[in-house]
């Protein structure tokens, strides 16, 4: 309600009043550590996710965090480094880490529900929930469709040889934008 959420390169998430730009609260979700500049990077690059009264954010070299929107109180954190925003569904928060492992975390507690590790080095996109599925794209232009329940693969389809830029689910349709400029609309055939 009239709030904008912003992730910053210093590991903080800000809540701003959308009309005035006034800072309502700020929360550090990652602390720089290490000896080199690269090791100390703590960017909050992925889009924070607002779900109900909670904000979920990821950070590079940091953590996945659940923050109460009204009080900025940290409800839970999980040690997972990611530069992609999370998505949610079936009571889970889905995160793709920097090693291209897909994690399902309990949205209330942050505890691990399942982990899919078979997409190493595929340069995955942010996860998108669609119907009963979780979808990620990769650098070769493949969509990988997984079950939200346990992370097992349900389908795979090549969309754009240049890679997947972004995806959005709208109703029963999944829209995919490829790096070559190709836009594809898909529906899952349950047969």
Features:
191 residues; mainly beta; 4-stranded antiparallel β-sheet
Strand content: over 45%
What is the helix/strand order? Answer: EEEEEEEEEEEEEEEEEE
Q: Unreliable runs, pLDDT <50, ≥5 residues?
A: none
- In terms of quaternary structure, what is this? single chain
Judging from the principal axes of the Cα atoms, what is the shape? globular
Q: Using DSSP, what is the number of strands? A: 18
Characterization of the model:
With 191 residues, this protein is mostly beta strands. The chain has no helices and 18 strands. It has strands at 3-7, 12-17, 23-28, 49-51, 54-58, 64-68, 74-78, 87-89, 92-96, 102-106, 112-116, 128-130, 133-137, 142-147, 153-158, 164-170, 173-178, 183-186. Strand 10 and strand 11 form a beta hairpin. It is globular and about 50 Å long.
What secondary-structure arrangement, pairings included, does this model have?
Layout: E1 3-7, E2 12-17, E3 23-28, E4 49-51, E5 54-58, E6 64-68, E7 74-78, E8 87-89, E9 92-96, E10 102-106, E11 112-116, E12 128-130, E13 133-137, E14 142-147, E15 153-158, E16 164-170, E17 173-178, E18 183-186
Antiparallel strand pairs: 1-2, 2-3, 4-5, 5-6, 6-7, 8-9, 9-10, 10-11, 12-13, 13-14, 14-15, 16-17, 17-18
Short overview:
The strands form five sheets. This protein has a four-stranded antiparallel beta sheet, with no helix packed on it. It has a four-stranded antiparallel beta sheet with strand order 8-9-10-11, with no helix packed on it.
